[in-house]
Amino acid sequence: MDEGILGLVAAVVIGLALLGVLLFQPSAVYVETPSSGEVLANPARVAVGGLPEGTEVGVRLRDALGRVLAEKALAFRGSRAEGLLYFDLPTAPEGHLEVFSLSGGKTLVRVPVRFAGSRGIWVKVFFLDAGGKPFPAVRRIPATPRVATEAIRALLAGPTLPEERAGIWTAAPIGAKLRSLSITGGVADVTVSVPDPNAPVLELFAAQLRQTLLQFPTVSRVEVGFVGG
Fold first, then answer.
1. What is the topology classification, in CATH, of domain 121-228?
2. Which of 3, 65, 104, 226 makes an SS bond possible with 197, Cβ 3.0 to 4.6 Å?
3. CB pairs under 8 A, 24+ apart, for 103-111?
């Protein structure tokens, strides 16, 4: 056989071998938190590491019977993605957390988890519909005397993936954080840190905050403040 053909065949064989190594090497994506077998309280903090720059991932929480308790996109920061996951009541004490690609839906990693026994309480958080009008979504939050604070934290966690697919969105800027919340004499005073306190979209976000707080019988008026952060 001609030496040139032999060289070409050898190059092809080596190329295929290298491709096989790349295709079948273990995934570097891993779940930082929760750890395998961890008991999840509601909300559950989720962090995923080992992601290539710009990767968009979501997480899906299922109980042992396969029921989806929550499904949400994670915010990407550096080489990791993270977020808070508010989930429904499980029908079994165990389950698993799946991390999947938003572009193709492929499951990247899965870890077993367990669920705490607390039932929690249900509140409404107000996002926005396609027309920019407040839209109530239901969230299960921890049973706590600071119900209003937890409701605002659930609001800041953003819509679930099914809600986003239905056109539900939030005007809360990425990185918005609750600075303070007090309720005195029926007036709720809430301050949120945002990247740009003068952004026009904050008018819509303020409406979301007001509607979320006005559901509580101890609140008759809401004062909203934004600060840089």
1. GMP Synthetase; Chain A, domain 3 (3.30.300)
2. 226
3. 103/56, 108/27, 108/29, 108/57, 109/27, 109/29, 109/30, 109/31, 109/48, 111/31, 111/34, 111/35, 111/36
CB atoms within 10 A of CB 40: 20
30-115 belongs to which CATH class? mainly beta
- The owner of tokens 């040139």 is 4
Question: 196 CB contacts (<8 Å, ≥6 apart)?
Answer: 173, 228
Q: Is 174 exposed, middle or buried (0-12, 13-18, 19+ CB in 10 A)?
A: exposed
Q: Which residues of the chain have pLDDT under 70?
A: 1-27
Judge contact between 50 and 28, C-beta under 8 A: yes
The pair of three-digit structure tokens given for residue 90, joined into one six-digit string:
């499980």
The pLDDT assigned to 118 comes to: 78
Domain locations in the chain as residue ranges: 30-115, 121-228
Task: Say if CB 115 and CB 109 are below 8 A apart.
Answer: no
Q: What tokens were used for 44? A: 């559950």
Asked if residue 202 lies in contact with residue 192, where contact means CB atoms within 8 angstroms, the answer is no
CA distance 134 to 51: 34
Q: What pTM was estimated for this model as a whole?
A: 0.79
Say if residues 42 and 118 touch (Cβ distance below 8 Å).
yes
